[in-house]
Write the structure tokens for this entry.
Amino acid sequence: MKYRYLVILVSLFFVLGSCTTQNKLNKLNVAKNYMEDFSGKFMQEQIFHINDSISELSVRIQPLLIPQLKEKKLELYSYLNLTYAVYSSFNKKDIIQADAYKLSELLTFDQVDKQNITLTIPLKMEQNQPYLVLVSLQDPINKTNYLKYIRIVKTDEAAENYKVLDENGKILWQPWLNGQKRIRIQYRYHDAKSIFLSYFQPKFSPALPPYSDVVPKEFLTDKSFESFELQLINGESSLMELPRKGLYRIHSKKEEISGKTILQLYDEYPSISSDAQKVFGLRYLTPQKEFATMLQSEPVSTLKEFWFFEERTEERSKEMMRTYYARMLRANHLFTSYKEGWKTDRGMIFMVYGPPDHVYHEADREVWEYGPDANYNDLRFDFVIRSSKLHNQQWVLERNSSYKRSWYLMLENWRNN
């Protein structure tokens, strides 16, 4: 017992040790989550509310995808720890619950190439209260910490009141479906007779530039195109296939479309599999009139003309093309919400400016900073949390005309460098 308590203390110190200023969790730099070996590749998390006082944290780890384990190093695996902590605020003193687990005790090393680690943890969470959950995978040998923030407000409208399961009853870990998968929906309240599923057509545009003062039309969306009532037995729907591609919202009250979002997209998502998709991704690098002309041409010709020209070597053009579409793919993995990840505000900044050097979470926002020192002379983007009928947690960029200069410098770099 004493050993386990020591493991928890050491693990929490490893997670929070770099955050000493004023005991605030918003001093933790989690930029590593957006680098090439981002944690979402090998670790996924979901929370489901069981009742008014208990919720459930589910974590899946795919050991073979952990970057340091690609060569199956037994010594390293024995040191890997999974830690979680629940807070009632961004103050470290407001910790409610925490624990740590050695991966080697959850799954022996000889099984890492055969199965994943799945862990379900009960959490003490009261109704109508906000929470911050930190989930961390720690590699003390390489001094690497993969840290995830999960923000929760436990209400009757929360997305965490619903769980999407596959036909085998297993959790669907991503917020999107590929193709015509059969799913069932589990609802927190087992005595409920039905819930609702509202459909929105997938006609959402790429994000507007960071200096724009125009309100996106999709934020004004207040009506679904179609709504279905799903009958429940003991809190679960029957198996079903979503009828068409687009955005679906699961909600408990017919007239209040607030709940969980599911996207049904093309079969290869989040991959960028076609030339047409690659052309559409150029929207951020081209003026509107030029982009409209590009869409009328053959995608293969358009891509060749855009990326390859005399003033730039073929090798350099290929490198820039690989970089841009690798960012587009990663944006889909990281930022998918009510539309494809690359179309979101964070996806746009990520594709054009690249991964931020510093990422901080504050009570109402996520802050990205570019520059080695992350001081006031560096570039900063603030993404504020907003709720709408499309998604409970939208990260909306605080746009400002001051971004115009840096934006056009970046576009000039992509087009000519």
